[in-house]
Each structure stands twice: as structure tokens, then as C-alpha cells.
Amino acid sequence: MSILGLGTDIVSVARIDDMLQRHEVRFLNRCFSDQEIQWVNSRGLGRAASLAGRWAAKEAFLKALGRSVTHIPYGDIEVVRSAQGPVSLQCHGLAASEMASMGATECFLSISHEKDFAIATVLLQNI
What's 92's domain CATH number? Predict the structure, then answer.
């Protein structure tokens, strides 16, 4: 087992709330899967914070890849919640290809919130 990449990102909830106010439909459809949008919409007042955590997770994943990845769509990186509650990442399309090309077989995710910020850390490894 070896660690291949580590990424962390922090996001202001106010920044995401501003994106929702100005470009809600376009922002959601461009950056999040239908399942992510459904889950976040069920959160009511916590929508911006939930989206901020997911946005931070996507950015942390891209940083964990450790190279220029501007061609990977955010929609290819999906935050999912297990029946037990913890979140994880499912990669599709170009995100999955990039992860496989670096030899990563596992992707671990942690998301936390504190008042006005959300932070996420992603660890990529092969086992």
C-alpha cells in the first residue's frame, strides 16, 4: 500500500451562497450530479454549507491528483453518502481515468464544517 496523493481545500459558505443567488441552476447542473443536488436540496437551510463541503471535496480531489487537471469536469467527481452516514467520492469519466492513470485504487474523503467554512481532505492510494 502506498499513498499517491493528498489534497485539502477550504471553501467559504458565503461564496457558495453567492453562486446560488446569482447562478443557481447553471452552477448546480455544471458542478454536481443529480444525486448530489437531490440530497443537498433536502437539507433546506443548510444547502450552501452542504454544497461548500462538496465543492471543497472536488477541489481536494483535484489537488490530490497532483498535476494540471483543468480538463476534469466537476460533475465527474461525485460525493456520495453511505447508508451508515460517511461520505466518499465516486469518480466517473475523466476523473476516474486520471485516478487510474496514477495507479490509485482507493480514494478516502473527510469533510468538516465550522460556522462559515467547509473543509475537505482527500487521500489517494493504491492497495
Answer: 3.90.470.20
